[in-house]
Amino acid sequence: MQRRVLTMLVLALLLAVVPTAARAKGASAATISGGGPGGLPGGPITLKGDGEPGTGTDLANLADAAGVFALLFEDGSTAVLTAPPAGDRGPRYTVTWTFPNGDGGADKVRQWVWPYAPGGPLTFMAPGQPVLDATTKGGWYRADDGLRLTLIALGLPKRQPMTAPAPAAAAPAGVGAGAVDNQGRPAPGSATLPHRGPEHGTGSPQAALVIGLLGVGLLVGVGGVVLAVRRRSGPGATAAR
Predict the structure, then answer these.
(1) Contact 55, 62 (CB under 8 A)
(2) Of 71, 60, 70, whose CA–CA distance to 28 is shortest?
């Protein structure tokens, strides 16, 4: 009986001296702020409670959706990115997590969140932040759309995910300078060269000279016919009758 009581006392002493941070892994609070000029319409959003994974609280669900534990410590999550995606990510929010530490105080860990980024929400946690007697591993994390919906339910603006810009379409094969379709017409988007007439066509100097001589001859002929008609119809012609 005495041995059993002694064992229980020893266990109680051990639990008392073990740092709280070694037992409490979840956050005790989180504050969401930011979002661009003016911030959130209703001001920062604060959650408090039990953030231990699996408890099902709003705090725990938010931490799980944002990849907090994947970025706090190395856990091999495939959602952790090696480099940030390029392009516009939309408005950025800051989530400040509070973790009780073994000194009776609290560690503050900051995480950036882009809820409406194309391809799914993005988060970033800077490495080296003190937390739970260690430091954050940090990095980029690609969350699923559940994070956007969770944040909207907590008070963020109801916005759809951004769409990535469509890549520029490459020109079809064969389309270029002088390309034509199956009917011999310039293909759409092709560069056409100025048309040059044949050397001996209607646009050549020789053709212009021939046309000019024909015109002069025609005028001379018409003039002769008119003069002959006038002579036949003059006074002398009448007298001869």
Answers:
(1) no
(2) 60
Q: Are residues 137 and 44 in the same domain?
A: yes
- pLDDT of 10-58, one tens digit each? 344 444 443 333 344 789 999 999 988 878 988 999 999 999 988 999 9
Give pLDDT tens digits for 81-105: 989 889 999 999 999 999 998 788 9
Question: From CA 95, how far away is CA 62, in angstroms rounded?
Answer: 10
**C-alpha to C-alpha distances, 197 to 54, 64, 194, 205, 208, nearest whole angstrom:** 82, 75, 10, 12, 14
Domains in the chain, number: 2
Give pLDDT tens digits for 176-186.
Answer: 445 545 445 55
Residue 81 forms part of a structural domain: yes
Range of the domain at 98: 19-154
149: number of CA atoms within 13 Å, CB side?
4
Burial profile 118-128: b = 16 or more Cβ within 10 angstroms, e = fewer: bebbbbbbeee
- Nearest in space to 98 (alpha carbons), one of 84, 88, 110, 108: 108
The answer to whether 101 and 21 are in contact (CB under 8 A) is yes
β-partners of residue 47 are 30
